[in-house]
Amino acid sequence: MEAKTPPHSGFDVARYLSRQPLFQEMSPEELQRLAAGCTLRRLARGDMLFRFGEPCESFHVTITGQIKLFGISPGGQEKVIEICSPGQSFAEALVFTGRPYIVNAQALADSLVLSIGKRVVLDEIGRDPRFALRMLAGLSRRLHGLVHDVQAYTLQNGMQRVIGYLLRDQDTAEGASPAAVKVSLPVSKATIASRLSLTPEYFSRILHELETEGLVLIDKRDVHILDPQRLAAYPPS
User: What is the reported pLDDT for 7?
Assistant: First the structure.
């Protein structure tokens, strides 16, 4: 069950905001005004933060836990759009459109989410247009990420998508260290498969093939990449 907590309940909202790229150039007075328009939401695993079609009166930042953004097809199939980890904001663009939420948001684990009210954001933009520029920069980064995802889904096969996901934070350039690394899958394999537009069965087959080829070792949610450069070059041309 979701629990809403006022900002003065022990969590220093203004201090937290000051550490986020979107807000770190704001003065203490501006941060305090912004904090007054925020709400802390504690969600248990499985709780919904918002649903498709509900009015969008806030955008959100994941403080702890993970939030899954997803849609439902006409046939009832779930498609994961994004998995929002701590420090990641979402639903910023909708705040300015006046439209309802276009996806669902659900906690994948016990989570703490900061909801930043639409009214206080618009007030701060009116006071300082530089705040609007920072929000535009953040939205541009999100758009770039979504375009990258679309390119991956349309131009890459399933194997390439999985390898790209496993190596997303690794340096595989020539001359980089070939040392083994461990990647811990943050959510279930089924959720990651949906995020990559793959069926869970196909995702598992790809992981099994990579393990058979001696490129990775699978231990529950831990994927040990034995040689990132070899994995990046698989399958050989």
Answer: 47
